Structures are given as C-alpha cells and as structure tokens.
Amino acid sequence: MFEGEPMWKSFLDEVDTVLIAALSEEEWRRIRALDPPDPE
C-alpha cells in the first residue's frame, strides 16, 4: 500500500507518459475509453 492505495496505482502517471509517446493519438484515446471512471 502507498498513500492508502495499492502500490501499482502510484505508477499510472509514468505509464501514461510512456503510452502517449508510443501510441498514436487514436489508439491512446481508444485505450483511455476502456478505463473505468474514478470512484472519487
């Protein structure tokens, strides 16, 4: 756990940066559309 969340969630910003660099904008939008909404 890290700051009350599972540790893997602390890496999501870095993962997004890598995916944005590696994927086309269309593919990035498609992947983001698969994400469930944040429950906050």
Can you tell me about this structure?
The protein has 40 residues and is mostly helical. The protein has one domain. The protein is built from 2 helices and no strands. The longest helix is centred in the middle third of the chain and has 11 residues, at 12-22. The radius of gyration is 12 Å and the shape is flat. The mean pLDDT is 89.
In summary, what is this structure?
This protein has 2 helices and no strands. It has 40 residues and is mainly α.
Keywords summarizing the entry:
0% strand, flat, single chain
What would the average pLDDT be, to the nearest integer?
Answer: 89
Query: Treating each run of at least 4 consecutive H or I residues as one helix, how many helices?
Result: 2
Shape, please?
Answer: flat
The termini sit apart by 18 Å
Rg is 12 Å
Number of strands: 0
Q: What portion of the residues fall into strands of 2 or more residues?
A: under 5%
Structurally, the number of domains stands at 1
- Helix fraction? 40-55%
Secondary-structure class? mainly alpha
Q: Could you describe the largest sheet, including whether it forms a barrel? A: none
- How are helices and strands ordered from N to C? HH
Spans of 5+ residues with little confidence (pLDDT < 50)?
Answer: none
Strand-helix topology:
Layout: H1 12-22, H2 25-33
